[in-house]
């Protein structure tokens, strides 16, 4: 056991325990406090301290706290706040006596909050008490979410929360305000990993009122821009393979692109792909919020998975309709030959003059049809995987890496199911149809979704509907990893808690 002076904290023991290295700063004294500390509580807090003290130097610093909180999927900022509140002598780290002093005071506040939740004062909080207490506090929560939160704390499967379970779960929460505790409990983030049809996340009422939501979107947008730029060669390779009528090897296509336009050509179409992130995210978010209001009316309850699917699909449809011409331009620019277009405006002008306004919505129908299976499967698989994990690890909060893994798996499965529609969309976007009769006098027949599907099946077989899916899969892991790193640093700079 780490030695704590249980009498007056004087002399070298007290000074060595909580003095900043190399300094002579005065040390807060806790004589009466430690003297009153029961043996069982002292041992419990020492075990927690040792677990947090990753480097074993009998001090907890920002690195120790960050590593511990990261296992809970919580951000560096929570560690900074905890350290700021517990570091009494401003030494930059926390010794055992400081830690025990802070945690005991924190636990008194947690006890007070628990007493408010425990309506019948039986020492336990059940589901009905939880819902009633949150309602009285003005925190809207339906029975489904309350049950999920209760299950996350309920270590012994008793279907209620004891004070010990409440205290242990919220020990590192750097606040005792009930609204902050609930945010720590259930908060989620928005992250763009470079896919077009991701379903927006919900934001709390507090985040909506304080404007924190735009910081989430900005952090996600920056992460998405960097991620898309880094994986742009794979994206262009995918588009190039999608429009080939016969099977092509990835290496041959890559060699052709390098020979035709050099290394820089691998990033063709990326600028407009990044450019469309901001309007797409903003329109999708606004549409999602509007559809949520229509579904819930005046009720502020949490939406069910089915309602989130409907809202997400509608939001995706609205945003895709608004920015679809940019999708067509992205495809055309990705497939262009050297010198064909001098800029985005030049490409838009030439396409309009040759093919008319309708060309900017070519492939729109399969694109819209693809939203439903992608959004539905993506959301359903994500929720299923997360629930499966929680059912086997009832006492653990899933880490951010685990949530990203669930998101990657669900996104991949969603792409597999909707990929044929995405391929047909790309083929239609890529085909230039000139207005008016052909030079030989015949009338040009504009391709549509049905005849493109038929032609692929007849000439290439079912496997033709999945051309280019290999580079699409290859880019998932680097896209997720890059997005995670960029999002973490960007959100930290913008003051967003990543939980």
Automatic annotation (TrEMBL):
PROSITE patterns with a match to the protein in the record? EF_HAND_1, EF_HAND_2, SOLCAR
List the record's Gene Ontology CC terms alphabetically: mitochondrial inner membrane
Q: Where are the transmembrane segments?
A: none
Its chief place of residence is: mitochondrion
Does the entry feature the keyword Repeat, yes or no?
yes
The residue ranges of the EF-hand domain are 40-75, 105-140, 141-176
Q: Which domain of life is it from?
A: Eukaryota
Q: Drop me one GO molecular function for this one.
A: calcium ion binding
Please list the residue ranges covered by the Solcar repeats: 211-294, 303-388, 398-493
- Membrane topology reported for the UniProt record: Multi-pass membrane protein
Alphabetically ordered keywords of this record: Calcium, Membrane, Metal-binding, Mitochondrion, Mitochondrion inner membrane, Repeat, Transmembrane, Transmembrane helix, Transport
Pfam families assigned: EF-hand_7, Mito_carr
Matches recorded under SUPFAM superfamilies: EF-hand, Mitochondrial carrier
GO BP of this protein: transmembrane transport
PANTHER family registered for this protein in UniProt: SOLUTE CARRIER FAMILY 25
What family does this belong to? Answer: Belongs to the mitochondrial carrier (TC 2.A.29) family.
What name has this protein been given in UniProt?
EF-hand domain-containing protein
* Organism expressing this protein natively: Anopheles coluzzii (African malaria mosquito)
């Amino acid at each position: 056991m780490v030695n704590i002076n249980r009498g007056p904290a004087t002399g070298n023991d007290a000074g060595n325990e909580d003095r900043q290295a190399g300094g002579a700063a005065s040390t807060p004294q806790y004589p009466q406090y430690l003297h009153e500390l029961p043996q069982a509580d002292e041992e419990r807090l020492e075990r927690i301290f040792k677990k947090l003290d990753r480097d074993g130097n009998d001090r907890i610093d920002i690195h120790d706290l960050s590593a511990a909180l990261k296992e809970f999927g919580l951000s560096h900022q929570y560690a900074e706040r905890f350290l700021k509140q517990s570091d009494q002598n401003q030494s930059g780290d926390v010794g055992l006596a400081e830690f025990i002093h802070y945690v005991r005071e924190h636990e008194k506040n947690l006890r007070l909050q628990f007493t408010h939740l425990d309506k019948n004062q039986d020492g336990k909080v059940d589901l009905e008490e939880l819902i009633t207490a949150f309602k009285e506090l003005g925190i809207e929560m339906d029975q489904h979410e309350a049950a999920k939160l209760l299950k996350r704390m309920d270590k012994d499967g008793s279907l209620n929360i004891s004070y010990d379970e409440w205290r242990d779960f919220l020990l590192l929460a750097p606040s005792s305000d009930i609204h902050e505790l609930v945010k720590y409990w259930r908060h989620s983030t928005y992250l763009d990993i470079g896919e077009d049809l991701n379903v927006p996340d919900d934001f709390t009422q507090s985040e909506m009122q304080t404007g924190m939501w735009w910081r989430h979107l900005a952090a996600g947008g920056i992460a998405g821009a960097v991620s898309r730029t880094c994986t742009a060669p794979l994206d262009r390779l995918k588009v190039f393979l999608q429009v080939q009528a016969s099977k092509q090897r990835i290496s041959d296509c890559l060699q052709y692109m390098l020979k035709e336009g050099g290394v820089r050509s691998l990033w063709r179409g990326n600028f407009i792909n990044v450019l469309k992130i901001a309007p797409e995210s903003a329109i999708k978010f606004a549409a999602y919020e509007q559809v949520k209001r229509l579904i819930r009316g005046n009720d502020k309850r949490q939406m069910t998975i089915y309602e989130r699917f409907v809202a997400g699909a509608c939001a995706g449809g609205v945003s895709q309709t608004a920015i679809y011409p940019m999708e067509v331009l992205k495809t055309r620019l990705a497939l262009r030959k050297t010198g064909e277009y001098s800029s985005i405006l030049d490409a838009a002008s030439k396409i309009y003059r040759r093919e008319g306004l309708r060309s900017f919505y070519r492939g729109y129908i399969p694109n819209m049809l693809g939203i439903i299976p992608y959004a539905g499967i993506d959301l359903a698989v994500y929720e299923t995987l997360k629930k499966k994990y929680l059912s086997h690890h009832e006492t653990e909060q899933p880490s951010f890496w685990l949530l990203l893994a669930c998101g990657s798996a669900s996104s991949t499965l969603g792409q597999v199911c909707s990929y044929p529609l995405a391929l047909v969309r790309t083929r239609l976007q890529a085909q230039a149809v000139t207005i008016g009769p052909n030079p030989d006098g015949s009338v040009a027949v504009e391709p549509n979704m049905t005849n493109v599907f038929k032609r692929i099946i007849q000439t290439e077989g079912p496997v033709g509907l999945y051309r280019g899916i290999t580079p699409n899969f290859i880019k998932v892991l680097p896209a997720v990893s890059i997005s995670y790193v960029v999002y973490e640093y960007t959100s930290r700079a913008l003051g967003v808690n990543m939980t």
